[in-house]
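$ ./design --mode recover --in tokens.txt
reading tokens...
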């Protein structure tokens, strides 16, 4: 496999994806005057991205394995349409090095990093070894290549708890926390089976389990001329089954000095593989604010809008410019984080029934609007939610001058959002926006699954006390987060506390 990085000016692009991310890329391309071409399966014949595109090409049956996951069909559609570039979005083929290589071999610009970078960073063990060589801190661990008995002996020496991890893939597949020595071998066997089924690779390794950790990620942009910058951090600790459900930018626990250090480390990790385009370095942060490399996502992230709102930088348009061979227009010193943004992933699932996916016809979809509210979606009234794809149907993103203002705006937007015909997790998000632990920033990656319940409605006086404590704590620091409103009084501002 060659390095396979191709950048050149292009005037037409095929979006090898669907749903809200296809709409996001289509809009970015339109604003840059680039012809936007969609692909669709049987289930997506009437989808918004098909209607919105300049052209659309059929690529197969509804199951992703027969359409969006077949690289040959995507390449064929690109050739038929005359597309000069392909944007993979996220998921599907976005992080498949062989697909990026196919694009390169056909002379088609792949809007993303080189096959080499995808391959190196897509294998957790190789990525770990690569960033260690670049001086990036990693979680203490035990590498693959040992027998199960040798792994057990090494784990007993390192100490528990440990985390069994699959080398390939992501999304929590092939991952098992182990708290006792006698549980390790059975957990290794289970992780191998799951990883083999999901990724075709049962290679596993062990890491020390960081308890009470937070998931903090750094957004990067890098061009083909050796320039790379970080766009600040995102707080991604609110997860269920290792899948993010709510994201914020910036993070409640990261100050400017720490932001700069994490950004510099992330840039070093990206440069270690000659990374080009948009990417994200994910870190695990312990209770002492020590951070460790987890992995690199070699694509645009679902949660990229929160970074766009607090930096004013259109990440998807920057992706397209970089793929066209342009130099970054932004220098590191130009990146300023201003305000606060929160994203809620709106999924078609029942939060009162173990988040069981919900399918059916959307009869009503009334989207919230107003200042500081953004909704990225790919559904509409009359759209059918099928079982073939991910359950996420929209991203609700709210911006405010402070964290408190963003939370208040998110509460209002969630109250306005109306989707009928399928069950959604909007009640989950409403409950989270009232959680005193969320309001005070007291959560980690285990919070949703271990200490949050849809049946646990907090008393209003507890909520009020938590809000007050949050405000006081923030006023003592420099990142004040005030749940407040402002009213004029003879030209002066008076701050008033408001509670729900």
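writing sequence...
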């Amino acid at each position: 496999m060659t390095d396979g990085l191709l950048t050149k000016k292009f005037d037409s692009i095929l979006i090898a994806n669907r749903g809200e991310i296809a709409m996001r890329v289509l809009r970015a391309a339109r604003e840059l005057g680039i012809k936007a071409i969609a692909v669709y399966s049987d289930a997506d014949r009437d989808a918004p991205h098909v209607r919105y595109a300049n052209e659309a090409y059929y690529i197969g049956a509804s199951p992703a394995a027969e359409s969006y996951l077949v690289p040959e069909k995507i390449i064929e559609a690109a050739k038929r349409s005359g597309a000069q570039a392909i944007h993979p979005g996220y998921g599907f083929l976005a992080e498949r090095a062989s697909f990026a290589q196919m694009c390169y071999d056909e002379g088609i610009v792949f809007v993303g990093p080189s096959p080499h970078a995808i391959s190196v960073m897509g294998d957790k063990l190789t990525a770990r070894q690569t960033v260690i060589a670049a001086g990036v801190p990693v979680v203490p661990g035990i590498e693959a290549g040992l027998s199960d008995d040798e792994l057990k002996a090494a784990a007993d020496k390192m100490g528990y708890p440990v985390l069994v991890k699959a080398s390939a893939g992501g999304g929590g597949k092939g991952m098992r926390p182990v708290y006792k020595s006698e549980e390790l071998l059975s957990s290794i066997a289970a992780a191998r089976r799951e990883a083999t089924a999901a990724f075709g690779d049962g290679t596993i390794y062990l890491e020390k389990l960081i308890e009470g950790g937070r998931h903090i990620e750094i957004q990067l942009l890098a061009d083909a001329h050796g320039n790379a910058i970080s766009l600040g951090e995102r707080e991604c600790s609110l997860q269920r089954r290792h899948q993010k459900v709510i994201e914020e930018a910036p993070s409640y626990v990261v100050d400017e000095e720490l932001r700069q250090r994490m950004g510099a480390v992330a840039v070093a990790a990206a440069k270690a593989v000659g990374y080009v385009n948009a990417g994200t370095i994910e870190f695990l942060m312990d209770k002492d604010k020590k951070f460790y490399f987890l992995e690199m996502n070699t694509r645009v992230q679902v949660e990229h809008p929160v970074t766009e709102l607090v930096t004013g930088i259109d990440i998807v348009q920057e992706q397209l410019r970089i793929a066209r061979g342009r130099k970054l227009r932004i220098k590191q010193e130009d990146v300023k984080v201003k305000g606060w943004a929160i994203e809620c992933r709106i999924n078609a699932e029942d939060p009162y029934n173990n988040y069981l996916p919900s399918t059916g016809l959307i009869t009503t979809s009334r989207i919230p609007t107003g200042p500081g509210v953004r909704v990225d979606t790919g559904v509409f009234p009359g759209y059918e939610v099928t079982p073939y794809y991910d359950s996420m149907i929209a991203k609700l993103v709210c911006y405010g001058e402070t964290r408190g203002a963003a939370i208040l705006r998110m509460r209002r937007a969630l109250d306005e959002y109306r989707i009928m015909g399928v069950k959604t997790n909007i009640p989950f998000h409403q409950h989270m926006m009232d959680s005193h632990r969320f309001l005070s920033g007291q959560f980690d990656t285990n919070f949703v699954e271990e200490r949050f319940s849809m049946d646990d409605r907090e008393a209003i006086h507890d909520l009020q006390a938590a809000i007050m404590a949050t405000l006081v704590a923030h006023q003592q620091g420099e990142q004040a987060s005030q749940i407040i409103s402002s009213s004029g009084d003879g030209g002066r501002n008076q701050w008033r506390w408001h509670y729900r």
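exit 0
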